[in-house]
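ARCHIVE CARD
Drawer: 12
Card no.: 0347
Subject: one protein chain, sequence and derived structure
Cross-reference: see card 0346
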Amino acid sequence: MKLTPILVATTLTLTLFPHIAAADDSSKSGDTGEHSATRPFAAGLMPIVMIPLDHLSRVTAAEVDNGVLHVTERPSSITVAPVASVSWDVTKRVAIGVFAALVPHDVTSIHLVAGGAEVSLREGATRLMFGVGAYYEGDAQILAPGLMDGQPLPTGETVLFQKTHGGGLLFVAGVVL
């Protein structure tokens, strides 16, 4: 079942560094400080589940066997990426906020840019974050025009792929410590 890897991936989150603590303004609010001494900034690695809305058939690898093109690998819709978020308290245990993510392609370029809204449920210093947003992929790889998986390769054709851009919805989830 396709849902199983998604559920497993959303439970595996590694925080790169702790929150940057916000100033404690409990003296102004008159409460115990539990609510106002939040840590609104977080950054770490979180799983991202992507759902393309551009109807592109992304391809990672393909081969030609006896003149017939066969797609051998497609990219995963689940990736782990650096995510930064900022949240604001709604109640003592619930916060809302925004997040941004960058997925590097290599050292010099960015593969994917994402952003969206999040809801966090907090218990003490631990925060369970769920987010939904959109992504833009600047270097999606697809089959070259006129080529189809399982179809004969046109005579003299040597280019199998083309780069394009695309986008879609994404979901993030993770535990921020």
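Annotation on reverse: Residues 3-18+41-176 form one domain. The beta strands are 14-20, 41-52, 61-65, 68-73, 78-89, 94-104, 110-123, 126-143, 161-176.
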